Write a sequence for this structure.
């Protein structure tokens, strides 16, 4: 069974790659260089893909900086730092990139149909404190209908399925799953800041560090703070 895996190099996407392999899929990974602030993640995506034995890792290039609208695509917008989990859960943060997963899934769908894949795996998580609108179950259900109606495969009764194994898992549960699957956490990258070492204070770093700490585990990734 062929599957396209959206791989950012982060904790969640690396876990779904290993999950797809455990599901018996022939995995084809795809990453996106959209000139994001944290382009360092692309290095981790490639390294994780190589570690997992992926022969061909695709990178799609486009530039969302021309639109801005997010702290990840506009350097004039400050990254939130040192926020509590309660603060993160109050509203959709400035790190939300407008329609990002819709853009990503559109590319993944085209790639999947071109290679006659049956599945697209994406590491969205509805329980994450970020609360991004394009990480929620109703959004995935709507995109599944797009996959069915917008492709030859779908119209012929064999739609490409969107697989979201992490959507209802806590961050701690994702780490536990990744540990079972052998995900190399030291190769992953979650930080939103543009640095060679993870900052340790942005929302993404905070969520990750809090989950490892809750499990009584040490995150093997190096942090500046």
């Amino acid at each position: 069974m062929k599957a396209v895996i959206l791989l950012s190099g982060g904790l969640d996407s690396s876990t779904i790659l290993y999950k797809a392999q455990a599901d018996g899929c022939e995995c084809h990974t795809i990453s996106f260089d959209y000139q994001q602030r944290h382009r360092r993640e692309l290095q981790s995506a490639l390294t994780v893909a190589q570690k997992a034995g992926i022969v061909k890792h695709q990178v799609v290039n486009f530039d969302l900086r021309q639109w801005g609208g997010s702290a990840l695509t506009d350097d004039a917008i400050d990254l939130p730092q040192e926020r509590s989990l309660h603060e993160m859960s109050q509203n959709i943060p400035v790190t939300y990139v407008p329609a990002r997963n819709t853009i990503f899934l559109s590319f993944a769908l085209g790639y999947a149909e071109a290679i006659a894949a049956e599945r697209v795996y994406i590491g969205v998580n509805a329980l994450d404190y970020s609360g991004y609108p394009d990480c929620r179950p109703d959004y995935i259900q709507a995109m599944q209908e797009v996959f069915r109606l917008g492709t030859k495969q779908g119209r012929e009764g064999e739609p490409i399925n969107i697989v979201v194994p992490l959507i209802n898992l806590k961050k701690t549960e994702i780490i536990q799953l990744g540990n079972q699957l052998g995900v190399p956490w030291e190769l992953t990258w979650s930080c939103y800041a543009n640095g060679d070492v993870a900052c340790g204070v942005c929302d993404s770093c905070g969520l990750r560090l809090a989950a490892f700490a809750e499990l009584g585990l040490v995150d093997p990734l190096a942090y500046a703070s």
Q: What stands out?
A: The domain at 2-214 is CATH 3.40.50.620 (Rossmann fold).
